[in-house]
Design brief:
alpha/beta, 14 helices, 312 residues, globular
Length: 312
């Protein structure tokens, strides 16, 4: 999808890239693929039903409501988006461009609209300096098909996650094969050295219907830092071995040995206990209409099994 027309409208925003990402997130949050009920202040239909002069403040309130509901997943995502400061006519043009871009992305079956627009806001030199060229959605979907399925409780990692396309592709393909409830047993873990890319990946996973407890995206250096989890039995850190490991490593970037040494001194990237030991829904459980999926507690031996099976 070519985004030149969309970007010409979004660049007119005072907060440009950050404002564009915020608008995209709020628009897509009202789509059917999202999990649960978004905050009432974040209803796209309610916002655009207001007079245009009130959109800026309404969108700003929606951002704050989303941040309150998903503080970990959206930390920093809206930091520089000042939609209440935008001129009504500029905001109206940006909203129209956003709606057109999202409609085209939906028609193409893509889930990477946030990452696509984010990439368009970055210059070629910036992407080359980081080796940051995100995986196209069609390639991400193909790689998910090639990876196939693993065990019921599947741990999937991407050590150069970028905008999250590979994790999104795996989640969608798994969900299409086994259903929404079964996909809740998949745990998605990503790492990226670029903080904004991590924010985009987290927001994209929320929009794709990932449960907030089933994914964790680290801002770190996977070349220098191991991914670990704390064993419930003895509290010791154990290295995580993934069932499925996806990756589109950065290219065109020279690795600084000094930077690697500095990053290694920070220690391992530790998966929080509430992600590591979360409740896993049973595949055989059938959710009642209009209720959350039924869930069973993870067996008490799961932590020990996890530590032994995944320990390096």
């Amino acid at each position: 999808m070519r985004l030149k027309h969309t970007m010409s409208r979004l660049h007119e925003l005072r907060s440009s890239a950050q404002g564009a990402s915020a608008l995209l997130f709020l628009h897509e949050l009202s789509a059917e693929c999202t999990l649960g009920q978004p905050p009432s202040q974040a209803s796209w239909e309610r916002i655009i039903a207001k007079p245009t002069e009130e959109w800026g403040q309404a969108l700003e309130d929606a951002c704050q409501a989303c941040l309150a509901q998903w503080p970990e997943q959206l930390e920093g995502f809206f930091a520089e988006a000042r939609l209440s400061d935008e001129q009504p006519q500029v905001l109206a043009a940006a909203v129209k461009a956003i709606e057109g871009a999202c409609a085209k992305a939906d028609g193409e079956g893509r889930r990477t609209i946030l990452a696509d627009v984010f990439q368009e806001t970055r210059g070629l030199s910036a992407k080359q300096a980081r080796g940051a060229f995100f995986t196209p959605w069609n390639l991400a979907a193909m790689m998910a098909d090639i990876a196939g399925d693993a065990a019921q409780e599947t741990w999937v990692g991407d050590l150069a996650v970028g905008g999250g396309a590979l994790l999104l592709g795996y989640l969608e393909r798994f969900r299409n094969r086994h259903g929404f409830l079964a996909s809740r047993a998949v745990t998605l873990v990503g790492v990226d050295i670029d903080a904004r890319s991590c924010q985009i990946a987290r927001a994209s996973l929320l929009l794709a219907g990932a449960d907030p407890s089933q994914f964790w995206i680290f801002h770190g250096d996977s070349l220098a830092q191991k991914i670990a989890g704390r064993d419930r039995r003895d509290g010791e850190l154990k290295i995580i071995n993934f069932d499925v490991l996806l990756g589109n490593p950065p290219f065109g970037q020279k690795v600084s040995m000094t930077a690697l040494a500095e990053h290694a001194q920070r220690g391992p990237l530790v998966i929080p206990d509430h992600i590591l030991n979360r409740v896993i829904p049973s595949r055989s459980a059938q959710p009642a209409p209009d209720t959350a999926p039924a869930a069973t507690s993870r067996p008490s031996s799961r932590s020990g099994k996890h530590s032994r099976r995944r320990a390096a």
